[in-house]
Design brief:
Number of helices: 0
Strand order of the largest sheet: 3-4-11-7
Number of strands: 12
Oligomer: single chain
Radius of gyration: 23 Å
Distance between the termini: 67 Å
Largest sheet: 4 strands, antiparallel
Length: about 140
């Protein structure tokens, strides 16, 4: 066979790449936008909730916790649901309480944040998707 190169698996062949110059320039990759919230952090840290997926009767959310102008060694994010939402599963944070009032503190591995650094934790919830205002506090 011509124009193909054998791979490690001798039963399959892949086309050889051509070293001829292209008549059009290849596009440069664009940087992906950062999912972290922007804007100034007032206080020790800030927490922002976003919905990453939803379905009939539930949704998945992600909370970004971002340090302010100084490093933090431990954080707690909290918020209140506006309706009957309830978290059924969470990861990347230690959740306490139940019902409408939610409190999540850092895990041992994501509590230390340098100035301006961020971390995320996620959750699954029953109910209509919602992004209430969250507050963040240091230790």
């Amino acid at each position: 066979m011509t124009g193909v190169a054998p791979c490690q698996d001798t039963d399959h062949y892949w086309p050889r790449s051509r070293s001829q110059p292209s008549s059009s320039p290849s596009p440069s990759p664009s940087p992906s936008p950062s999912p972290s919230p922007s804007g100034p952090v007032t206080g020790t840290c800030a927490a922002t909730i976003r919905v990453t997926n939803s379905w009939q009767g539930g949704f998945q959310g992600e909370v970004t916790v971002r340090a302010g102008d100084s490093a933090v060694n431990g954080w707690t994010a909290s918020w209140s649901w506006p309706g009957p939402q309830i978290i059924t599963q969470s990861w990347g944070g230690v959740r306490s309480g139940s019902g409408a009032n939610v409190t999540v503190r850092n895990e041992t591995w994501n509590g230390a944040l340098g100035a301006g650094a961020s971390t995320t934790f996620g959750f699954l919830a029953d109910g209509a998707p919602s992004t209430p205002a969250a507050i963040c506090a240091g230790p």
